[in-house]
Structures are given as C-alpha cells and as structure tokens.
Amino acid sequence: MSDTQTFLDTLNARSQQRDAEPTWIAARRQAGAARFEAVGFPTRRDEEWKYTDVRSIAQGNFALAESAEFSQAQAAALTLPLDAYRLTFVDGVFSSALSDLEALPDSVQVLPLSKALTDNHEAVGGPLGRLTSVDFSAFAALNTAFMEEGAVVRIAPGTVVEKPILLQFLSRAGTPVMSHPRILVEAGSRSEATLIEHYAGQTDATNFTNVVAELMLDRGAILNHYKLQEAPLGDMHVASIHVEQGRDTRYSSYNLNLGGALVRNDLISDLNGQGAETNFLGLFFGQGRQHVDNHTKVNHNAPLTFSNENYKGILDDRAHGVFNGKVYVKRDSQKIEGFQSNQNLLLSDRAHIDAKPELEIYADDVKCSHGTTTGQLDEEAIYALRTRGIDEATARGLLTLAFAGEVLEQVALDAVAERVELAVAGKLPERFNLAGLVEAAVSLND
Amino acid sequence: MATEEMEQLVRRDYKEGFVTDIESDTLPPGLDENTIAFISKKKGEPEWMLEWRLEAFHKWQEMKEPSWAHLNYPPIDYQSISYFSAPKRPEDRPQSLDEVDPKLLETYEKLGIPLHERAALAGVAVDAVFDSVSVATTFKKQLAEAGVIFCSISEAIRDYPELVKQYLGTVVPQNDNYFAALNSAVFTDGSFVFVPEGVTCPMELSTYFRINAANTGQFERTLIICESRAQVSYLEGCTAPMRDENQLHAAVVELVALDDAYIKYSTVQNWYPGDEDGKGGIYNFVTKRGECRGARSRISWTQVETGSAITWKYPSCVLRGKDSIGEFYSVAVTNGRQQADTGTKMIHIGEGTRSYIVAKGISAGKSDQSYRGLVKIGPRAKGARNFTQCDSLLIGDKSGAHTFPYQEIGNSTAKIEHEATTSKIGEDQLFYCQSRGITEEDAVSMIVNGFCKDVFQELPMEFAVEAEALLNVTLEGAVG
Questions:
Q1: List of chain A residues with pLDDT < 70
Q2: What pTM was estimated for this model as a whole?
Q3: Domain SUF system FeS cluster assembly SufBD core, which positions (chain A) (predicted)?
Q4: A442 is in which domain, residue-wise?
C-alpha cells in the first residue's frame, strides 16, 4: 500500500497548489483518487495483468513537470515530418511554442484540455469519463485523479478534416516525472479525420506516461487513429483507448509500439450500431529487456457489425511481449463477422511471448475466427535468398521487415511508416541496415 | 433449422435416467478428520495413507474454491455431502460376473451395455465401479499373465503399497487445486494400472463409473503407470441415474509414462445433465494430468463429453522427456442449461517435445461452453512444436461458445499454431443436402458427425460406435 501512498501524496500536494475548480471536476478527481486508493496497483494475481508486472511504476517516485521547455532543434528532429494540425505536450505540459493550429477550419476544434476546461467546462463534463470509468483500472483511476491536461478534439457533422491532427507527447531526460494526459475526441456524424498520437523523447528519459483516450464516433463517422509510440527506452507507458462506434461508423487503429521499458496498451471498441466496422492493426517490436503488453477487445453489441484485427510482434534479446485479444459477441447480435490474427516472431532464445486470443460468443449466426502463431524466420526462405547471393544477415533483415510489412503497408501515412521502418532498422544497425538493404537490392538489379 | 426443432432438441429427455435400488452403506453427510479416518479404516488402509489424506485435507482447508472458470452455479456446501457409499456387502464382494448382484447387471442391461456381453465380445476387462467400491473385475488372470496390474486403487494401496507410494500425487500434488486437494483427502475408489517394462497390455482396459446413491459425491482416484516401452489403452465411460440434487464429482487421474511408453486414455462421459431448467445434474470437477517422464513417451487424451450439468476439466500433459508427445482430442456437446469449461494444458519442458490439440465444441439450447487451454513452452524446450485447432458449432441463438487459449512461449525455436473458428450449421449446407433427398435430420447428423470426425477416429473402435450413437441420440430431437 505504501506504493500507492507515494502517488497519493503527490496528488495531495498538487491539489493544494490548484485554484478552485468546478465541483464536477473536483468530485471526479476525488472518485478517481478513492478508487485508486481502494484497489492499488494491479499485481500479477489479477487476470488482466497476469503477464505484466507494474512494480517498476508502483515503486517509482515521479514528480509532476512544471514547465514545457524543450529545445526547438531537438523537438524539430523528433516531430513527424507531416503537414498536420499539431498540439505538443512536454512531460504532459502543453507547449504553445511547439504547437501549430494554423488554418484550422471553424468546423474543427482542437484544443488542450486545460483550455477547454477554462473556456467552457460544462461542454467537457458530459463526455469526459463516459467511456472510461474510474473502475476500468487502477491506471484509469489515477489518470482521472490527476487529469488536468490533454487534448479535446471536436469535429462538426459532415466535416472532412483534410490534414491529420497530430498530438505529440515529448519526454525529457532528468528527474523522473509522470504525466496523465486525457484525450477526448468527438467525431460528428459523417465526419472523416485522421488522428495521430505520437510519443517520443530524449534518449535518457525515465518518465511515466499514463494516458486515457476516449473516442466517440457518431453515425457514419470515419476515424483513422495512428498511435506511434517510440518513447525513450527508459520510459514507462500505460495507455487505454476506448472507442464508441455508432451506426455505420468505421474506426481504424494503427497501434505501432517501438519504445518504452514497460508498455501496456488497452484498446477497446464498442460496436453499438449496425454497420459499424472496426480495424485493429498492431505492430510491436521489443529488444533489450523491453516489456510490451497489448490488450485489445472488440465488443459486438449490435447485429451486422464487423471487426478485423491483425497484430504482429517481433521480439529480440530478452524482450517480453504479451498479446491478449478478445472478441465478444453479445446475445442476439446476429450476422457478425469478427476476425483476429496474431503472429509473433522470436529472434532470440531469451525472448518471450504470452499470447491469449479469446472469443466469447453468445449468438449463433456469426463468423468468428482467430489464429495465432509464434515461430522464427523460415530457414528455407533464408536459404533461398542466400542461393541468390544475399548474405545471411541481409536475408534475415529482409524477411523480418517483410514480416512487419504486412501491417506497415496498410499505414497510409508515409512519414509514420518510414519512422517505424527506420526505428526497426536503426535499432539493429548491424543486422537491419536499411540503407544497406536498399543498396543490396539495387546492386542485384544491376 | 426451425425454432420448434430447436426446442425439441432442448427438451430432449435423458434416456438413461433411472435409479437402481441397492442398499448403500453410506456415511452421514459431513466432512472432518473423522470422516477421513472412517474412509481410511473402512478401506483397510495403512497408516501412511491416512496421514497422506489428512495432509491433503489440511491443505484443502486453507484453499479457496476457484472462481475463474466461465461457469455459474450455486455455492457447494461441502458439509452436506456424504463422502462414503459402498454396496451392502463389502466383505464378500463378487469374485466373478456370476456373483454380481443381478440388479447391477440389470442396470447395465438398461443402459444397453451388458457387462458380460461387452466383456466377452470386445475382450475388455471391466473393473466396474458401482458407486465407490469395485464390484466386478474380470480378465484379471489374463492380465496377470502379462504382468499387468489392473485393480482398484484400494486394493493397490493394500497389495502394492510401494508402487502407490512411489507414484501417487507425483503428477497431481495434493495441493494442486481445490478439487484435487479434496479428492486427495476423501477419495474412495478408482483404478490402478501398472504395465511393466516392455509389455503391451493384451487388451483394452475399461471401467464403467456409476454414481448411484443420492447425495453421494464420487471421488475417484486413478493412477496409471507405464514403464519403459510399455503400452496401454484405457477406457472410461460414465452414465448416471436421474437425480434431483446436484451431485459433486471430483476425480483425479494421474498418468505416468516412462521411456518410449504410450498411454491412451479415452473417456465417454454421459452423466445426467439436469432437467430443462438445469435442475439436478452432475457437477463434474475433474483433474486429469499425464506426465511424459521418459524420452519419446506419448500420452493421448480423447474425450467425448455429452453429460453433466457442469463440466470443469482440463486433461493435461507435462512433456518432460526428450521428444515426448502429448495429444488431446475432445468433443464436447452441451444442451439445455449445461455449462462446460474444458480444454487442455500442454507443458513443454523437454527438447523436441510435440503436442497436438483438437477440440470441437457443440453448444445447443441455452448451454454455455468454453475452451480454455494453455500451451507453455519452457526455455529448454528447444524445437518444441504445437498445433491447436478449436472449433465451435452453435445450434440455436440462446447458446454461447467461448475460447480462451493461453500461450506462454519462452523459446525462439518453438513453433506454435493456434486456430479457432465459431460458426453454425450453414443454411446452404443443409439446403445442399436436402436438395439431394437427404432429410434435414440426417443432414444435421451428417454435418455434426463430420465436424467431430477428427476426434472420433481417435477413439478405440467400440467407443467410437458408442460415441457416434450418443451424438445421434443428442441430435435426435434436434430435427423433426
């Protein structure tokens, strides 16, 4: 319980600094703190956390960042080279200097949560916490207790947002700090948008990010949601994303995880209206002693809803990967199609994967399947490449990239895809030298 | 299929429901150290056995009943169960079939599996467990010539204490789980099989379990040991009379296979599933585990589960020996308000170990079924291989089918594959058959039998016939 106390002390100190708040925020904050105090951090005895040990977070001592100072040059190097509406947060603190909302149309609102709360807090009060209650997890409760910054995105009905909306979270090296960003997206009916969450930072950072995102898609809305998590290798990253889908909506999640010492993602989609479709694409790459845990859940709450999931894991060194995917079909939700696939590639003898694809089905007219495989690179494929004059290291690199390629080729944003390819290639320079691969390919053609 | 046909399926009566009236020497309900001492004394057990039971009992008292299974049932009052029930005359148990109580034989007749006929025709030695005490053992002589020991566990404790001491509880420890601990404390009977080095058991061994006296839990303990290069095929089949109160069955089965040994364990389980409202019916909480201790050993589980109100069962293999093989073939059919949470665990420890899982689930009526499995690959299990296929067939829109496979893989040389599908019998499949003059009922039966074929072909001949018959009986009400 003492682990919990450290966090509660920080929370109390913070509350005393804070100006008077609207009562609903104070009440919700209290509910979060009370829930967190009651349940404490999860242990491996909890089924949901069976494979993930969060002691490194629980036993940490994280302060709260006070400023958003970040070197312009470094930020520029980390920022995705994309023409986008951009909000930047440094250790959870909003940085207007690194943000860019130029030419944002009136039909779209993109603003930091702190501003949304000061300008018109009533409008946020309803949707905030509607999808992610404090009961969801200790981390959601903690996020609610600490919530003060994050992003609010509102898209008016019928609006097609031409440029992607980029939410950038940067992590600084130095005294460990924690941040609890809250993201709220309300996509109006028949609107269409691309949202990018991007986590990056200074190499030596050792911070803790605990983000909660709530995404609401009204009738006919389309949302493409990219999450590129390339946090520093010392960072802890816990995230939950709850999606609510109305009739005929389409949500596509691209969950790309490369960084972080300890990573846990919870992605949940509620298909509440007929014709709703959800696509979960994921890639996780672990090396060193990284621990990457992905939990996904699709709730088919209405008939004629569709889901499609494909998660790929590549694990090297002593990395530990977890995949837990669940497809739930509610009683009388007929004419459902739900597909799930998880494939894992183990590159080292000490890498470890725990996979648990689940189906929970209460209707009979459904087509649901899941498949999961774990293996290593096909020795015969490597041999085939070597007979064509490609050295073994290059052959392994090509095949590994090809394995990741199945997910990457669906990433429509080149800047994001390139970042992943480079990160994967850059992380293992001797074996995955992308430039070298290209050269090899070119010389073969000559 | 039409709704009324579905309802007929749901209303299918339990064909084998009747009570045979044999006076039982039953212990009053309740469980404490005295109960255990009574059982131990009644069985004429040595001191060490009683100590072992008490040790288990103390561990059980400290344990909590598990709640993680996808099952729903009222709490069990362990003090309201009677823990011992034996047929009237335990002293002069029949030595041959002729001496068997004619009423018991009559019971078997009603079930359509006449003991003598079956034994003679199929060459099966039957150690019939009527309630808790073995009442008939046949073909013992022939087995003895081959050096195979096949007797009740009580006899084994008396006659072969060293063997029992050496192996009992080594695969399923006393405190393995709540129900295994309970079983270790109060088990009353079960079978013991020992096949010595190099011997292939000359016949398939079979035990028919029956639960008969009201309020009596059945706590069977089975131990099968195959020494190097030995082989045995063991058949277990169950039926039960109709009953109003829930009956608890918590059996433990332990298998040990040494170098190059092969144990095949087949089960057909058709206990009373409860009535339309799910009243009555057996609670079947079973721990079955085999250990491939020796190199190249092989353990194969095949089960056809059609009965019981609640099934909670995961026959498992611990693959310790190099290149050992574990197999699991299962067909589970649930109907009415039956619930089943079943599957397997394959623990790969040794190098080059392989496992193969085929699980087929059919849920009809308002029943719920889950496949829950674990494939664990240890760091030293180089080149381990697993293939898992679990398919669910849903009949009617009130049933549920769930899959919870766990994979824990700690070795990069392992190759693991898992596939699962959930579907119903396609309208187009039925139409195809019907357009060729096949009745709907036959078509459904054909499709379901085809769905289960992978498992049925693993069953020994006589059992396969019985299993198919059982499935057809289940489906009889489904159409027409």
A1: 1-2, 423-446
A2: 0.82
A3: 177-403
A4: 379-446
